[in-house]
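ugh finaly. both done.
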Amino acid sequence: MRTSVVLLVFLAVASHTVAKPRNRFTRYPSWNNKMYPIWKDGDARYKDSWKGGKVTFNVGNDSPTLTAAKVTFTIDLEFPHTQKVQPDGDVVWAEDCIINGTMYGESEPVYPGQSSDLEAVFPDGTPFKKDKKPAYVFVWKTWGQYWQVADGASSSLTIDTDDIPLGSYTMDIVIYHYRSKEKFIPLGYASTQFSITDQIPFAVSLDQVNDIVAGDLRFIQNRAIAFTITLHDPSQYLSSADTTFNWDFGDESGALISRELTVTHTYITSGSFKPQVVIQAVIPDKACDPPADPTKTPSPPSHQGTTDTEEDNTEDEASSTSNTQDAPSVAKTSSSVNRESPAVGGVETAGAKRPVILTGRATVVVLAKREADDKPDDCVIYRYGSFCTGIEVFEAIEKVEIVQMDNSVMATHNMERNVLDITVTCQGSLPKEVCSVILDADCLKPIHTECSMVEPSKECQLVLRHFFNDSGVYCINVSMANDVSLAVTSAKVNIDIASGLSSPGTIAMVLGFLVLVVALGIVAFSYKRFKAYRPLKEDLIVSSGPQVDRGHVGSGSSMFWKLLNRQGTVDDCPLLQDRPV
C-alpha cells in the first residue's frame, strides 16, 4: 500500500513537471516589463489580445545554410478573415461587421495609428530609429543571443553563421503590437528550426524530351537526358567561389568535369544506372583579406545581440520543439498557430530583404553539432557536396508509320457507310495503348478520338478502322504509347462518297422515276399517231355508208394494235386515190 502511495505521489509530481509550461525566452533584468508585459501560458488576456479574432504566424527560413554563410528568417502575420492589410501596412476591416456588440465599418482601422510623438524603445531600452515607428516589434532568439526588429505585418532577419558549430537549431520569436503610448501587447510566439552544414546544399533535376511521367526516374535510351544542378545559396556566399562539377553517369562512359550547371548525357543501352556528381567549391578565405584602414571609424555591427548574464531562475530557458514542425531544407516552415508565452530579451534593430525561397527539397535532417573541418590552404576554403540517384533506362517506341489506307463501302443496318482501314506499324518496344484522332482538313479541330489497349504480340502491326458518313479531306493522327515512351505519326486522307445510290430507298425512287418517264413516252407516241391528218373525199363521203358500218364492226383494241404494227411505208388509207374521174 505504501509503495502504491509513493508511486501515485511520484506520478503526480511527474505529471506536474511535464505539464509545466516551458518558456522560450529567459527573463533578463534589462527587460522593460511595463512597456512589454510578460504573460504566462494560458493567460486569459491572450484571447482578447487582438480585436476580431486571433492572429496567426507563418514563420520560415532559407536553411540548410553553408557554414559562414548568412541565414534569413521570415515571419508573416495572418489576420482574421474579416480584416486585411493595406499597402501602407495598416490593418483595416475588410467588411462591415459587429464585434462584441460594437459596429465597425469597412476600411476602418482595426487599431488607430500610434502618436507621432511616440518615443518608443525596444524591450531592452534601445530606442527606435527616429524615422521608423512601425506597429510591431519582433524579438528573435537563438544561440543565447537575441535580435530586436521593429517592422510591419511582414518582417525578416538575416544573421551570420561564422564560428557557429554545425548542427540543427531553433529560432524563437516573440511578437508585440503597439497599442497605446508606452504600451505593447504580446500577440504570442512562434519558432522555426534551421540547420548549418559544411556540405554544399543543392538539388539535381533530370529531364528528357517527351518524358511521359516527369520525375519517375525512368527514361528511354538513345535520347539525351539533361542533368541540371540548382545550388541553394540565397546569401550568395558561393558567388566568388570556383565551383566545379565532377559527373559519373554510371554506364562506364567515363567522368565528365564541368563548370556548367546543366550537362546532357545519352544512354545507348537499357538497364539500371546510378549517376552521381561531386561538387567542389574553392572559396576565398576572408581571413586573408587586407586589414581595414585604421583611420576609419568602424561601423557598428549589425544583427548582433548578446544575452544578459543574469537569469530569472523562475523561467525555463530551454526551447521546446515538440510542437514545432520541421522546416523543409529550402521551403518555408509554418509554426504552431498563435503560441502564447512570456516574452523576454533584446538589443538592437535589424531588417533584411526577403530571400528567394526554393522548393522541392527533403525535410531538414537534425544534425549533430560539431566543428567544421576548416584547413585553409593558400587563403582558400574547400567545400564539397555530393549527389547520387538510381534511374532506369528502357527501349522506346522508336517509330510509328502508316503503311496502308483502304477505303471501302460496308452495309450496316439500313444504310451503307464508307470504311477506312488504316494499317500502322512501329519499331522498337511494343506499345500498350494506341490512339487515333480524326481532325478537319486543316488538322486543327478534332472530330473523333478513339483509344484502345493493345494486346501483346510479336510484331507491331495494327489495323485501325474508322467509319465516315461525309465526303471530304481529313487529318488522321495516330499515337502509340507505353510506360516510358510515346511515338506519333499523321496523314491526310480524301474520303469520296461519289454516288447517291447507296440507299435502297433512293434506288427504288430512281427506278420508279424511270418507269414513269417510259410510260409517259408511250402515251405521247400513241396520242401522236391517233391525231394523224386524214382528209375525206367526196366520193368516199357519198358511198361511205357500208364502210362506216364495217368500221363499227371492228373492235377498238384490234384497231390500236393494227396502228402500232403498221409499216412506215404502207398506207391503207392514202390521201389520194388513183381513180379516174
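ok and the 2nd:
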Amino acid sequence: MEQVENKLNDYKILREGEAEIIMLKKNAVFYNPVQVHNRDMSIAVLRTFIAKRKEEHKAMMDKREKPRNKGCHDRSSSPNGENGSTGQQDEMDAVGEKEIIQVADEVEDLHLPKKATKIPSWKVARELKEPTVLEALAASGLRSLRYAREIDGLGKVVALDIDTACVEACKRNIKFNGASVMSKMEAHLTDARVYMLTHPKEFDVVDIDPYGSPSIFLDSAVQAVADGGLLLCTATDMAVLCGTNGEVCYSKYGSYPVKGKYCHEMALRILLASIESHANRYKRYIVPVLSVFMDFYVRVFVRVFTSAIEIKKTPLKLSYVYQCNSCDSFHLQCLGRTVTKDNSVKYAPGVGPVVPQECSDCGKKYNMGGPIWSAPIHDQDWVVSTLTEVKSMKDRYPAYKKITSVLTTISEELHDIPLFFSLHNICSTVKCTSPSAVMFRSAVLNAGYRISSTHVNPLGLKSDAPWDVIWDIMRCWVKNHPIKEQPCDSSGTAILSKSPKLEANFSRAVAALSKARAKKVNRFLPNPERHWGPKVRAGRKITSKHASLLGPDIINHVMNGAASPEDGNVPMPDKPTPENRENATDDEDEPSTKRQKTDNDELATEP
C-alpha cells in the first residue's frame, strides 16, 4: 500500500476547460499552461468550422434539389400546357399502378431472396458525417481531450506521437476522462508524417502544434486534409521566421525574411506561403480564415481545397518585399499578373522592379525578402462569427479575455493591406516628437486613405496610403513642431529636405478612434504571470541557461537539488495583482523608454 501511495505522489491532476489530465511531476511529457490561449482559440475556430460546414452542405443540397424539383414539375403537365388527365382519372391511374407494383413485389418475394434496399446516391449524400480530427503531435493529449469533451458535433479524434511516454500518458488520460471520451478518441504510437501520408484526404481537421518548426510536417499534412477541411498549424521558431537566421528560414520555409517592425506579421505570411507551396504540388490550394500572432508563436487556420485551375492564381497571392535599410519605407512586388484578351484570362510574370536602386525617400539601399503571402490572411466573416460564438459561451473558455481581445483587434484590421509600420519608428527616423495615434490617423483619413491598427503590435498601423503621403504628413508635423538640426547624411534630413506635396489636416476625423477603443475594450493584455512563454522541452535537463524561461528562483531550487520545476513545492515568482491586470489598457501612445531590469540581470547580480 505504501508503494502505491508513493507512486501516486509522483503524479498530479491538471484541469483545463472541461478536460483533466494526470501528469508526472517530473518533466517527462511536455505540458505548457501558456498554450491555453492556443487551445481556446483552436476550439473557437473549430466550432465556427462545424457551423460553416453545415451551412455549406445545406446550400449545396438545396442547389441540387432545385433541378430535380423543376423536372418533376415539368413532367406533371403536358407539352401543350394542358393537364394530361382529370383529377379523378389521376387517382384511378395511381391506384392501378400501385396494385400492379404490389403484385410484382409479391411475385419477386416468392422467387428471389430478399436484398437490402438500395438508396439513391443523392439521398446518401444528404447525410453530413461528423468531422474527424487528427492531432499529429499530441504529447499528453490535452488538446485532443478538450476537442472531444467540449466541441459538440465532432466525430473521431485521433492523437499521434512518436514518443512512448507521451502515448502512454495520452492513453491514461483518455481513460481518466471517462467513457464519453473513450468512445471517440484514440491514441497511436507512430510517426505523424508516415501516418498522414498513408491516410490521404481522410481527416476534416488536421492540427499541427510542434515544439519548434512545423516545416517537416507540412507536406504530409496538406495531403491528409479532406477537401474543404481545416488545417491548423503553429510555428514557435520566431527567431528564424523574424529574420535573425534568414538563411535557416529559407532552407525550412523557402522564403527569406527581412527585419522590420512587421516581422511577426511577416512570419505569418512566410508560413502561409510555405503551406501554399506544399499544397500546390498536389493540385491543392489554401484559403486562410484566421492567422494570429500570440505570446511567442504564430498560428494559422487555413482551409484546403483541390483545383488545378485555382493553383494558377498562386503567383497573384505572393510578393517580394523591398525594405529600406535606413528608413521604414517598404514596397511589395507581386510575383504574377493577369492579362485579359478576347474575354480570356492568361497569367504572366509580374512587371518590375517596383522600386529604383536607391530609396526614393532617403536615398539609401534596399534589402529584399520573400516571397511572402500578400493576399488576405483572415476571412472577415469567420472572424466575426468566431468572436460572436466566443462571447456567447464565455464560461467555457479559460482564456476568454485574451482570445476576445485578439479577435476584436483582428476584426478591425484592414485585411487587404499586407504588413504595417510603427508610428514611433517613423518619428524616430525624423527625430521628432510623436503625434498621438488619433491625430496621425485623422491626417491619413482626411487625406482620403484608410488606416487601422493591427493585432500584432499595439503601435502598428496598417494603411493603403503610399509612403510619399506618409512622409508628407510627417513633414507637415515637423513644420508645426520644429526639431533640432540633424546630421546632413542622416535619413531624417534627406526626408525633411523635400517640400510636402500634401497639406496634412490633423483635425480629428470621426473614424480616427476604433470602435474597440471608443468602448474602452482592452485589446492588448499583459501576461498573467512572469516568465509566461515557452517551456523546456520534455526530458531535457534544467540548467542555468533556462533562467529566462523559468525564472531565477526555480533555477536556484533545481540547481540546489531542492525540487523539480514542475513540483508544486517550488515557490513561483510573484504574479501581478488582478487589479493591475484589469486596469491595463492600450491607451498609452508612448511606452516608457526607460530600460527595465530583466530577470537575466537579476540572475547575473546574484552572488
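summary for the 2nd one i guess: The first helix runs from residue 2 to 8.
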